[in-house]
Amino acid sequence: MEGKLLLGPTSNLFESKGVLNPAAVRVGEEVYLYYRAVADNLVSSIGFCRLKNNEIIERWNKPILEPEFDYEIMGMEDPRITLLDGVYYMIYTAYDGLDARVAYAISTDLFHWEKKGLISPSISYDEAEDIFRTSGELDLRYKFYERTYRGINGDQIMLWEKDVVLFPKRFDGLMMFFHRILPGIQVCYVDSFERLNEEYWRDYLKHLEEYVVMDPKSFFESAYIGAGCPPLETERGWLFIYHAVVVDSVRGKIYRAGAALLDKDDPTKVLARLPTPLFEPEADYERNGNVDNVVFPTGIIEENGVVYIYYGCADRNIGVKWVSITDLLDRFL
Question: Could you give phi then psi for residue 329, rounded to 5 degrees?
Fold first, then answer.
């Protein structure tokens, strides 16, 4: 794959520490990037720029969205954007200093956003353990992560929820999205996000094993995986780019990009999955930064037969990789 560095931090206070993990939306001949911008005090907001031919033609000197509410007071992180039913959904991680949960905002013009609040479960890991215990089929690694996070952060830390990507079409009239309860990727169906209340999530968690789409499998994803870019529909199925983590004894955690091909009519069916990384930290700006050895894909577009993947580099910069969609899909054969 070819690639290059796109954006780095600036002297603007809201993005002086780092820029990373952008959402990407194609608008005519341009690409709008909505990226996580980190200040020196480690509070994140959402920055904005416009690209043409992957060159910056406009970059705002202030956030397009910033923390307002208690549940996001320490940061709005890692946005992904999907157009569904004529509405743009920006789904992001809301961090309050202890708990990381999922929230969303909507827009019809990509500039004016209405925050709609949290959609992930406000359930403690301690409660989750009681729920997981009722399942005899759930991978034991789920219970391991529950015990680990609770042991580090205390009984009342909320279930760590990140990495939600929404499909750009409905299935049987329902919205469909992937999310991540460690260590795998699960699916949810719902007619609207307003239905995602505590009652829904408690029932869902009782049957979590039924909703697992992908668990860690290959050598480069042995620790955990998480949704990356919103799924991209192709003639052969849904192209799904995700991130994968392994803990190396020398280098610590290493984040790589993986890829899977999902059934067009039922994306919970994994048709193929690359046994090796799609790409991994190689360039200096991917290996060295605020968190070393990280590539974290979050934005994807297709134009004239080429797939462009926008990603965070070592939690400090933003890069782009590109490849012929035909060449990429042929790797699944």
Answer: -65, -30
**Amino acid at residue number 214:** M
Helix orientation angle between 198-206 and 125-132, rounded to the nearest 10 degrees: 40
Q: Which CATH number fits domain 2-330: 2.115.10.20, 2.30.30.320, 3.20.20.70, 3.30.420.40?
A: 2.115.10.20
**Backbone φ, ψ for residue 145 (5° rounding):** -65, -35
**Identity of residue 321:** K
Q: Angle, nearest 10°, between helix axes 125-132 and 140-153?
A: 160
Say how far apart CA 92 and CA 103 lie, in whole Å.
6
Q: Give the pLDDT band of residue 142 (cuts 50, 70, 90).
A: confident
Query: In 3-state terms, what secondary structure has residue 329?
Result: helix
**288-299 pLDDT per residue, tens:** 999 999 999 999
The answer to whether 328 and 259 are in contact (CB under 8 A) is yes
pTM of the model: 0.97
Question: How many C-beta atoms lie closer than 10 Å to residue 115's C-beta?
Answer: 16
| Domain residue extents for the chain | 2-330
Q: Assess contact for 255 and 162: CB atoms under 8 A.
A: no
> What are all long-range contacts of 10-15, with beta carbons under 8 Å and residues at least 24 apart?
10/61, 12/61, 12/62, 13/39, 13/40, 14/39, 14/45, 14/47, 14/62, 14/63, 14/66, 15/39, 15/47
Give the Å distances, CA to CA, from 310 to 6, 32, 106, 257, 319: 9, 11, 21, 11, 6
